[in-house]
């Protein structure tokens, strides 16, 4: 993770501030910074979102492709994640510098979304064993201002939630093999159901306290952090430890409790914003080519 | 995290000011609307140019920094965004934003990046690192003598990597790097506090750049765009830069410095005010800072991070400054 250089005095000020529950920018330990989210930033993808939380800036784009389901899960689609830490985000990411971080983030996302409860992968299957959707989620980190993992997880959820998946209108048989048939109308699509998808709450420990939405400075004052995936109902989907810290069981339990509480709130706000984004997408959509009449689907 | 610190379970919710977390994420569309209705028309000074603007078509002007000569018609064209400056026949465009060009006598805030032989390298937001020579600091004991080999060995005890200092620019070297000095009680190593980075061009040049504000907070407005905010008087770490007369050997330990909640709140508020001023691209100096601070009092400190609140504060400060006829 991108680290910033701090003096002993700055660290002293920061850590004691966290203990007094007044962080450097006046937030309490549970407060997030404010951010904004924008939809359709990458026009040639099926769904894309640019999400900013203070200085952290991430673009998430999803591309839907047709593929063959995995043999062990013949009736499920596939979601793949790819993270790219751009060197513009931090000089540390230059060359192969960001690879390790990118890999870690990929792994955490895949493990959180692999839970059958988070997203119904069966809805991405078209013909069992033969055809399914492969959703490639590309994540580009433009700027890293702390709390990268949470922002990426929010972006991924918003991106999957607003991703337009073409609707297969049926199957036809070609040489005895089923082949999916798609409508030529680009406005016939489905949204993925992300109402159970998790967000990640990262809790770095600054001094003796866990904080939510840490800045880069706060992150460099903490040895390690716990990244906790939280579903909208408050259930925990994953717990990962990042960095070189060791935790006692009860402090993990306490942090999981805290994350669950915070995660429910974040999920609530995010779901509301996803609905708003869907609406704004509808408004901004320009029908081109002009919408054909109903039932004109060419097969 | 060491084992013994791990011993006690961390306090999570107990003692927290708020039991619920604040999370605010805006959809970009509504945000754009807010911007459209809120902002006042910005008057643009005539001598501001963007890259490609023809600065002059007349012959007989010399090409300075930030300009180039268009080979087809020999006109002088700006290569950066900024203000046109003219000294006799030399035309330059001084870029806004970007890196800091130092001037002798400027107060700067910098961070030590490297300890070298007889000198420290200091990050001061410029094209090149600033240089602080061992001979241009006051020794912590306050003695006035030639620097010995022992002093050179103990340089890291005086200032080490990551330390933040306030300094004055002593001279500019031929290659454009800046020589700093801290040979005054005003300057030296800074104590507990926080650093805010803003574009260097919005710091207004004043007679005084170190202010102890009435809200109990001291602020150092470095000309290089680094602003230091601290609850300690003059922002300085006590006992690190003593003049000969008050060198009583008193050494303040960092752990003994206590900072009250009220002080912390004031520092945080000021930090957010500076961020708001910088976002609205308003000049930063003592008066504008106090206007912003007063305008911010109706909000809670954490609320000042919201973009709409930041914008409102910027707007209020702009109005106030127009009323007083300050800045422009």
UniProtKB/TrEMBL annotation, chain A:
Domain Exoribonuclease phosphorolytic stretches: 32-166, 198-252
Subcellular location: Cytoplasm; Nucleus, Nucleolus
A Pfam family annotated for this UniProt entry: RNase_PH_C
Superkingdom of origin organism: Eukaryota
Record's keyword terms, sorted: Cytoplasm, Exosome
Principal subcellular localization: cytoplasm
Keyword Transit peptide: no
Record-linked Gene3D superfamilies: GHMP Kinase, N-terminal domain (3.30.230.70)
UniProt xrefs under SUPFAM superfamilies: Ribonuclease PH domain 2-like, Ribosomal protein S5 domain 2-like
InterPro entries linked to this entry: ExoRNase_PH_dom1 (IPR001247), ExoRNase_PH_dom2 (IPR015847), ExoRNase_PH_dom2_sf (IPR036345), Exosome_comp_Rrp42_subfam (IPR050590), PNPase/RNase_PH_dom_sf (IPR027408), Ribosomal_Su5_D2-typ_SF (IPR020568)
Record-stated family: Belongs to the RNase PH family.
Protein name as catalogued: Ribosomal RNA-processing protein 42
Top-level taxonomy: Eukaryota, Metazoa, Ecdysozoa, Arthropoda, Hexapoda
TrEMBL record, chain B:
Pfam families, sorted: ECR1_N, KH_6, S1_RRP4
InterPro entries to which the protein is assigned, alphabetical: Exosome_cplx_N_dom (IPR025721), Exosome_RNA_bind1/RRP40/RRP4 (IPR026699), KH_dom_type_1 (IPR004088), KH_dom_type_1_sf (IPR036612), NA-bd_OB-fold (IPR012340), S1_domain (IPR003029), S1_RRP4 (IPR048565)
Domain of life, source organism: Eukaryota
UniProt keyword annotations, A-Z: Exosome, RNA-binding
Residue intervals of the S1 motif domain: 105-183
Record localization: Nucleus
Family: Belongs to the RRP4 family.
Name under which the protein is recorded: S1 motif domain-containing protein
